[in-house]
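Annex B, item 7. Sequence and structure tokens for protein A, then protein B.
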Amino acid sequence: MKLRFLVLCLSFALMNLAAVAQDNPTPVNPSTASFKGVGPGDVGLYVNPVGINIRNSKADFGPFAFLGDGVTQRWFAGAAIGGYVNFYHDPKFDAGIDIRDTVVTGNGSRLNSFLVGGRIMPKPIAEKFKPYLQLSIGVGNSKAAHSTIRLSRFQYGIYGGLDYTLSKHVDFRAIELGYGSVSTINSGNFNGTQSFSASTMFNVSAGLVFRVP
């Protein structure tokens, strides 16, 4: 809940940044190659379904086994809520930040990830196709199915996707793929006989992006 509340606050902050930038854009003259500012369509908000395949290098057992007893990989499903703002513009690309909170569950276990990242969006490869790439870092909070204990650890993710313009204020996120890592809760955290390396994650998502103003 705290992470979701923080995402809400940061979403308002993104909106406020956009408003300030629009009121005070960086002056640009015809010879300037790049500039800073937020204009129409530079802010996007999204709530997209997401699937994440989480893998461990070896199986865990007991109440803290995040993937389940003897399991080394499992698909989790849930949703990602977030937003981005592009505030740096170059003739060849736009750049900014992305803030997202993702919640997924699988076999009774739960992972809540809060990530902040830098994004770069090359100029459209066609009139309506907008590819992007981003690197995000943050915190992953995990809970195993048979335990009430939660564990928070550093998490990172690399994401790439393609948005397609449907209308002035709506994009279709045709695909987003991601790869990342986080140390989920495991028996080794509670005096277990084995230690476990960080889990790897493969993400896939699609949905709608609402651009404002």
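Protein B:
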Amino acid sequence: MQNYDDSSTVDFIKPPFDSINKISRTPLGKLQIRGPVSTDQLASCLLTDGLCCFRQPCRQHQALVELAGQPDGLVFTASLADKIISYVSFQKPDYPWWEKRCFPNLTELGSIETDPAWRKMGLGKNLLNNIFNNSEFDYFENYIVMAAHFVQSWDLKNTGLSPWAYRKFMINFFAKYNFATWETVDPEIREHPSNILLARVGKNISESEITHFTSCCLGTWK
């Protein structure tokens, strides 16, 4: 099995900016799907007012600009002109359980958010299809992409769903992009029974890397 003790010395290799750059026509104008976007590109746009799930739009915008400038930060957006109405972000996991268990071929889908006014238009699906089900963009086939989902960040109020119903929705939604649930003893995920850890194993990931990821999830590797 690969030695992961020196994994911190391995550089994270980003795909080129705008590896994805597509235009779709909508009733409200031309929708642009692009990414990963640069800090300058993000700084020249604004987040719509509805993108407030994690923090106020202006603060979330600044956080995304900073993330895009990080060595391991990737941001993909759906926008109308200079207004971002949906985005997906990735970075190396940085919260306690995973920060010390991270390895070169692991990354995290940190956030996905769509303005509620646009949720019926499938923007999240459009973004994820371009990122994960795109024959012209196979970057994530070289990674295990984990996605930790916490009940406190779910939009239970607007959807009217219970935590368990929302959990099921999330599992089914991400299954379309080859994410599956993984058992874990991560204490933050175990804080609430509805919290879930999902992960997508890229086609180029070895069995030893899968075994290592499993041992990290279960706390048998330290």
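Comment on protein B: The longest strand covers residues 83-91.
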